[in-house]
Every structure is written in structure tokens, then in C-alpha cells.
Amino acid sequence: MVEKVYGIGVGPGDKDLLTVKAVNILNSVDTIFVPISKEGRSSVAYDIIKDVLNEDKKENIVELLFPMSKDIDYLKKYWNDAFNTIKEANGEVALITIGDPTLYSTFSYVWSSLKENNISVEIINGIPSPFASAGRLNIPLVEGDENIAILPQGKDLEKYLGVFDTIVVMKTKSLGEKLKKLVDEEHKNDYIVGIVSKACCENEEIQMGKIDEINFDEVNEYLSLAVIKKIK
Amino acid sequence: MVEKVYGIGVGPGDKDLLTVKAVNILNSVDTIFVPISKEGRSSVAYDIIKDVLNEDKKENIVELLFPMSKDIDYLKKYWNDAFNTIKEANGEVALITIGDPTLYSTFSYVWSSLKENNISVEIINGIPSPFASAGRLNIPLVEGDENIAILPQGKDLEKYLGVFDTIVVMKTKSLGEKLKKLVDEEHKNDYIVGIVSKACCENEEIQMGKIDEINFDEVNEYLSLAVIKKIK
């Protein structure tokens, strides 16, 4: 049975944004589990780490299938399979996840099963995507006594827009329509919106401006998020 | 005049949680500015990086004084002095900040002045403290469609407790009193509270449990934060 599982965040996409600790542990574990979303498709997380691995470590990669779906019962079968594969591994292993393991991560699909089975877990944080995106936008997320809300897929945006100093919307699908419905003519200049797709990757795309200045049709929705700040 | 300013996050306290990029840039810049809160006091941020610097780089350290105060007019004088010192430096420089530069950081005190003066800024993210703390608590901050709010000093906690799936309170002063006032007998088991002081440092302190199980008198308030999760 596995001795220890490291949940390692590999950050937004640039291998140099890995922590020193992540690089060291990736090169010390017996097996590295990498998530894929479909058989035969390459792993985004693995692409980030592959160039920091020693040659002999590249033989210790095992893919775990985490399909994209909204059907939780269907997904749970895969989460359980992944847990069983990890449990049966030998020695110390790592499961890598893009961004940070504590923020909407693939690691959370096996985390509670590992703990319930008293398997030792250690989290190695990675740079979370909202922070990488704010860095690339060259703006602070929050300063002083400002507050911030992070909303998945813009859920409850109507409740919190204008209430929080900063809102991060994870996944920007339909965000343009939502914002144009929520914000009337009088208030459309009250916000600055930054949209980042694939922060820190080679094919990063960035837009920043008032609501009317953003071309929402051109936003690449894959690995994208929005930072919405109230102008003071 | 300075050519470029890197705002470098040095993470929560463990030098191995620096990113590879941060280590490389710290060893390439002409000057490293380190924040201190009082003349003669050592810099927490510098203590994190000192062992990753090449010997010759240790001569290029310049302290900047950012006193602790709530008097913004008094502080602005120091922020302006810091900006002027940075502006007059030669070549490429770095200003280091604990945690991440985009989240309540020392870097934000000079950031807007740098931009207004068209000085090139590049942000190198660090691991933000809420994420390091959740990692040490061995719990996800958010998963699935959960939302999260980050509140400085627990401002507006009464509005958002029970509303957000997860709340992070930066600085835990008076948090015990606030929680006991806000949560009645019937609901006191509805939350799990994790309190972390100096996450990932040698003298890290952790408590986790229901509200009644936390000994708030023993919480070290320096560099501390709370993660409050609704139990489902």
C-alpha cells in the first residue's frame, strides 16, 4: 500500500513557476500520477513539469483519467478508480494538478478518500490562477481593507457585483452577457475587467478595460478567468 | 533611473516554497529592496530568501522602511520615500514581499506610483498565505461549485458567514469574540475553523475544530489567518 501521497500544484503553466519544493519532490517520489481528461489526450499538468524531471523519473508516470462531465455519479466512478490506483502504488507518490491543490483542483477528487483511509497526505502549493492572472494584468487583486470573492462560473455574480471590491470569476463562459444584463448604462464605467486565458503560458491571451471595451466574443474560454474590480 | 522593477512574492516562509523563477531573478537583479517595519528590525521577507542568494548578491540589499500604522497620511510619506529610492536605483531591481504581491502586499504601496511613472513592472507570484494555510490544514479551500470570500481583519464577517462556503479571515484579532457573538448555540457545530499562524515556518502554529474547540486565547495573532468552512 502507498506510504504517502503528495498533492502538488504545478501552477498556471510556466515550469519556472513551480516551487523549488515541487521540483525536488517530483524528482524523489516513486510514481507521479498525472491527470488526463480523455484517453490519448496529453496532460496539461504533465506538460508543465516534464522538463524539470530527471530522465529516470520520466518512466514513473502513470495517467489517471478524470473525464469532463457534470454528472457526479458518472464522475465518482472515475474518482474511485483513481483513488484505488493511488492506494495500490508503492512507496511515496505524487498527484500533480494545475494551479494549486486547494482551489478547485483535480486533487480534491481523491483527497477525502485518502484521508478517510488514513493515508498520509502532504500538500505542496502551486501558484493559483487568479494570482497569476492578476500578476499578468499588472494589478493588485486586493490592497488595504478591500475584500474579494471568488465565484466558480460566475455563480451568484448578481449578488456580489458592486458589493465586493474585487470579484474573480473562474471560467468566463457567458460572462459578457451576464455583465451587460447586470450593469446598466449609468454604471458601466464603474468597473475594470481583466480577462486572462492560459496565464503565463506561451499562448496566453489578455484583455483589460471597461465592460464595453472588452471583446467577449474573442475570449478563449479554455483555462480563462476574469478579475472584476470596482473603480474607486 | 531604474529600468525595471520586479515585484517578487516570497511565499509564506519556507525558502523551498519560492518559485524557480523568483530564485533566478533574485540572483540576476542589480538591487534587492527588502521591506522592514522598523529601523534595526530584521526583514521577514529577507529571512526567507537569504539562503538562496549567491554570496555576491548579499551586498546588493537595500532596506525600505514601511512602518506599521493605520494613519494613511503618515504612511504615504514612507511609501513615497520608498518609491523615490526605487526610482533612483540603476538597472533592474526587485522588491520582495511575503506571500504574493497581488494580495494585501507591501508591493502595492509603490505599485501605482511605478505605473504612473511608466516604469516597467513585472510580477513574480509567490504562494499566497490562505493557500499555504489550507495546505497545512490538509483541507481544500473550495471544490466543485463552492465560493469563497477573503475578508481583511474579518470585516463584514457578519454579512458573509453562512453565506459563503468558505471564508478566509486575514488577521485573527478578536475573531473568537466575533464568532461567538455571531453564531448561536443551534449553529455552532455548522462550521469548521482552521487557524494557522506563520504557515510553513519553523514556528508554525495550527488549530482546527468546531468553534467551541478552538482556544482563541492561545492563537498567536502575528501572521495568522482563519479558514472557516460550512459543514455540509
Automatic annotation (TrEMBL), chains A, B:
Record's keyword annotation contains Transit peptide: no
SUPFAM superfamilies reported for this sequence: Tetrapyrrole methylase (SSF53790)
Swiss-Prot/TrEMBL keywords: Cobalamin biosynthesis, Methyltransferase, S-adenosyl-L-methionine, Transferase
Pathway stated in the Swiss-Prot or TrEMBL entry: Cofactor biosynthesis; adenosylcobalamin biosynthesis
Entry-linked PANTHER family: COBALT-PRECORRIN-2 C(20)-METHYLTRANSFERASE (PTHR43467:SF2)
Family statement drawn from the similarity comment of this UniProt entry: Belongs to the precorrin methyltransferase family.
Name of the featured protein: Precorrin-2 C20-methyltransferase
Lineage of producing organism: Archaea, Methanobacteriati, Methanobacteriota, Methanomada group, Methanococci
